Each structure stands twice: as C-alpha cells, then as structure tokens.
Amino acid sequence: MNTAAHPAPAAGKDSRIDWARIRADFPLLARRVHGKPLVYLDSANTSQKPACVIEAVDRFYREHNANVSRAVHQLGSESTALYEGARNKLAAFLGAHRNEIVLTSGTTQAINLVAYSYALPRLKAGDAILVTTMEHHANIVPWQLVCERTGAHLKVAPITESGELIVEQFVEALGDDVRLACVTHVSNVLGTVNPVKELARECRRRGIPLLIDGSQAAPHLPLDIAAIGCDFYAITGHKMCGPTGTGALWAKREHLEAMPPFLGGGEMIREVKFSGTTFADPPHKFEAGTPNIAGFAGLGAAVEYLQGIGMAGIAVRERELLEYATHALEGVPGLRILGTAPGKAAVISFLIDGVHAHDLATLLDQEGIALRSGHHCAHPLMQFYGVPATCRASLAFWNTFEEIDALVAAIARVRKLLA
Ligand code: PMP
Known about the structure:
The radius of gyration is 22 Å and the shape is globular. The strands form 5 sheets. A 7-stranded mixed beta sheet has the order 4-10-9-8-7-5-6, sandwiched between helices. The protein has helices at 19-23, 51-64, 74-94, 107-122, 141-150, 167-173, 196-205, 225-228, 253-258, 293-309, 311-330, 357-366, 379-385, 401-418, and strands at residues 32-33, 36-37, 39-40, 101-104, 128-132, 153-157, 178-184, 210-213, 232-236, 247-251, 269-273, 276-279, 335-338, 347-352, 369-370, 372-374, 390-394. It folds into 2 domains: 3-46 and 310-418, Aspartate Aminotransferase, domain 1; 53-308, Aspartate Aminotransferase, domain 2, CATH 3.40.640.10. Strand 8 (210-213), helix 8 and strand 9 (232-236) form a beta-alpha-beta unit. Helices cover 39% and strands 17% of the residues.
C-alpha cells in the first residue's frame, strides 16, 4: 500500500531482487516499539543484522570457539579459518589483497592506527594534515591529538551550503606543508558522496598520501579500492550488517611495511627477547591480543550477505528510497533538508521550523520511528550550518516506501502536538 502523493517507483523495477523477502531476513525489523511497528531509520548510526550474521556469531560460540593462531587443535584451526576468512572476504569486497587488510574494532581504531603509526613518527612543527568541514569526529580528533604532540596543525577544506566539498579549494590547500589528507567518502550527516578518485589523483600528483573514511560508503556503494587510488581506507563492520566491534583498515603494502606497530602484545610478534623483539609481517603486526573472533565470523557472513544481494542493486534500491523520501519530506511545511548534493547517499538530515530536533525525535520514537537527532559526531559541520542539532533519517535497502509514508504522517501528528 502506498498512500503518499508521490507514487513509489514501479514495483519490481529491479525484478531480480525481491526486497520484501530480503526485509524478512532481518528478525529485529518485525519488532514493535511502544505498541507500533518499528520503523528503523537509523542505519547510518548502526545497521540491523540479518539472521545469517546473528547465526554465524551464535554458531561460532556453540561449535568453534577457541583462540586464533595459537592452538594446534581442531577448534583453534576452525576459529583461525573463520577469522582469516573474514579478511579474505573483506579483501574481495574491497578489491584489495588480504595482506593489506588490518582487522580492527572499527573505523575509529583504523584511523587511530594511521594517526599513531603513520602520522606521529613523520609529523613535525609546521606540517599540516588536511581534512574537510564534513568529517566525523573520528576523522578529526585523532589528527588533532597527533598535531598537539608534534606541533603540526590541521587545515580544513571548505564545503558549499548544499554540502559539497569545494574541490578547487581542497586542491589549493594541498601545499608543500601537507603530509596527509583525510576525507570521508560519504558524509554521515549530509549523504554527500565525495569525488574520491579525483581527490586521490590530485593527492598522488603532489605525493601526498590520502586516507578515506569509508564508514558510510562500504554499506551502500560498490567499492574498488585499487581504482580509487588512495593510500588508506577505513571501514566499520557494524554499519554493513556486521557485528559491533569489527572493522578494517586497508593500506598500501609499502605503508604497512614501513609503519611501526601501534599496540604491542601477543599475536603480533615473530620473536620476543628481553634484548629486543621482532614483529610479524603485516597485517598481523597490527593485530595485538585476542581479537573479536566471533564478531569477524559474523562480519564474514555479512559481507557474503551483501555480496549475495549485490552492491549495485543495493545502491539502486537506496537511490529510489532516497528520491521518494526527499520528495515526501520536501512537502512538509517548514522542513529544511541539510545536504542536497547531487548523487548523494540515502541520508537525510532535516530541521523543522520552531521544533527542536531532540523533541521531534523523542516524539517520533513514541510512534515507533527510530531516527537520530543530535550533532552526529560532526560538531564542526553543525557549526558551519549554525545549528546545534539535526534530525537524521538514514535509509537502507530493507526500508520500504510505506515506512517513509509512516515517517511523514508521524511528523504531521507530532507537529500538531508541538504546535
Ligand atoms: N566515520 C563516519 C563517517 C561515521 O559515520 C562513523 C560512525 N558514526 C565513524 C567514522 C566511526 O565509526 P566507528 O564508531 O564504528 O568506529
């Protein structure tokens, strides 16, 4: 049923994919919240998990649980195969070699690894790291911390009012002082998809390494890291149908070989003597301690699940949902969308005249609608727009056009309450 004024795209536009069946893969989506059907519009925060991922984690503990790389027994080799299998699957997903994939707890750890192992030893007073106005705190604060320790400073490439990076100004800022550029692939607040290939080309021309925060790209777009041409690419598993506490850093082999370890301990050594320690080859050199093995068993299943649907099909589906939602929300009196870049991803930040974002999100929750309000870990972006917070509806391929209608109808009811 589609009750909105804007008809949904012809059903079955991509007839190979049965989206209703795919939605049924997500047990949690059948929940009710405050007596209403759950409408989950907070995927940019964390995605819901399909049953195959939940079962992979459950199966790990029921059937395979052992530590990785240490045991010669059967369980140990099964566990190691699942953990290393996740690396292989991520490598195929990203178009990279498995030895260039460091498994981490998420994007935050991946970026901190680059900050402390790559940037810190290289930076000196007067050097700069270039970021953009639309970065998540995870791609700002680690750089500020290493700047404080080295006397380097941050440079910020500006964006337009519509939320697009001003590429000429980014390129102009790539001066001799810049030792590293750090850009999000897709903005978690605006949905802007940055022209990362072009940015990588400009960085390469000047011999400046480029780190890309791929947290919001990996769940939504087909990726080919080799084709992008960057130096570092960070992803987080929990936004791509995987468990929390999983993620990865892809880095060029030459960087991984040159970088010293970030954390020391078991699993990352070749030989330890009191006179000195030699380290394992990358990527294991960066994976000290017992990792989140069950989580990576789940992430391996998540990557297979996404690939089974196909990232190209997911991107088309989400574009249709985004167009429908944008059109529907634009019809709400007094509603303003922040982030209108062409080709943006399915993230809609909005404000409604006279209504505080938190009040709106709290009342929408009573209607069963889960969306995020706040600064979205992007204070500088909020400062740019001069607002303390926005409401953010973020869509995923399992969402429906009816859920968007439900959001618009609930906003109308809530506004009456707040009027
Ligand atoms: N970067 C972006 C663009 C994000 O959206 C997020 C998660 N909100 C992060 C980094 C941090 O990811 P994690 O907390 O999983 O490390």
